[in-house]
Specification:
The chain is mainly alpha-helical and 83 residues long. Helices cover 39% and strands 5% of the residues. It is built from three helices and two strands.
């Protein structure tokens, strides 16, 4: 029942964690303080993975601005912070 967001597609080879074709779900974008992310890693709520390559990261970040599912406050946050 969810809507497909084709803004940023990821394929095997984009990252070792990506085994089948995927898409970024910008509807779930949120802003969290670094301390909350670290706490989530330490508590096991998040699992650290290898970073994505710079080109893949740029595609994902560009998609934040282009996706119709990204909340405007997220786009504003990126702009205000020079990202």
């Amino acid at each position: 029942g969810r809507r497909f967001d084709g803004t940023c597609l990821l394929s095997p080879g984009d990252h070792p964690f990506v085994k089948i074709d995927r898409f970024v779900e910008y509807i779930f974008s949120c802003i969290e303080h670094e301390s909350q992310l670290r706490q989530g890693l330490q508590g096991g709520a998040f699992i650290a993975r290898d970073p994505v390559s710079e080109p893949v990261f740029k595609r994902i970040l560009d998609g934040v601005r282009m996706s119709p599912f990204t909340e405007r406050r997220i786009v504003t946050f990126l702009r205000v912070n020079g990202l």
